[in-house]
Amino acid sequence: MTGESDRAPAPHPRRPRGRPGHTRDDVLRHAIGLFNRRGYDAASISDLARELGVTKSAVFYHFDSKESMLAAALDEALDALSDAVADGEQAVGGSGAYDRLRSTVQAAVTILVQHLPAVTLLLRVRGNSPLEQQALKRRRDLDDRIAVLVQNAVQEGGIRGDIAPDVISRLIFGMVNSLTEWYQPGGAVDEGTLAASVTGVLFEGLASDHGR
To answer: Phi, psi (5° rounding) for residue 17?
Structure first.
């Protein structure tokens, strides 16, 4: 039996790589902000590392490439919007398409505010890579699902029939997507008030006399 002095020193715990205080989410938040300010193609890992005050290797500890950051950002926006559309589609069990469409739009506005930087980045994607093309496909799929609700709401008489359903869809998308250009989180209008305002303006104007 050895004495206390004969014991081998306990190994030092391994130090985590990367700069303390910067989590994966921290890095992603800064990356999204950088991509929105400079454009994805113009921004570099060096720019991001400089902004974070770390080395490039510290950035690569969390993400293996700039494209993987873009993928995470687009997935964040698309997954959240997909959940909003799914919730709206299933809302108010047994209700008509008008109510489901209204619930979907209100949920989409709330999600947009909660994930504003990521959604802003999504709306600026132009399909310059397979990753961006896949994101655009997922976005079109969401648009198509909302367009079906619009078509059903028109057929059920909840929405006025003197405007083509595809025009109505574009009006909805245009109004909701424009929020990324001017809305400031933490300002005078909270997300609940904003969602209620947008749906109120849209659906008061779209409701048919029968649906009012």
So the answer is: -75, 160
Which CATH number does the domain 18-64 belong to among 1.10.10.60, 1.10.260.40, 3.40.50.300, 3.30.530.20? Answer: 1.10.10.60
Cβ neighbours for 23, distance < 8 A, ≥ 6 positions apart? 62
pTM: 0.83
Q: What is the pLDDT along the chain (212 residues), one digit of tens a residue?
A: 444 444 444 444 444 444 445 899 999 999 999 999 999 999 999 999 999 999 999 999 999 999 999 999 999 999 999 998 888 777 655 578 888 899 999 999 999 999 999 999 999 999 999 999 999 999 999 999 898 899 999 999 999 889 888 899 989 999 999 999 999 988 889 999 999 999 999 999 888 764 44
**Domain assignments of the chain as residue spans, ordered by start:** 18-64, 65-206
Q: What kind of fold does domain 65-206 have according to CATH? A: Tetracycline Repressor; domain 2 (1.10.357)
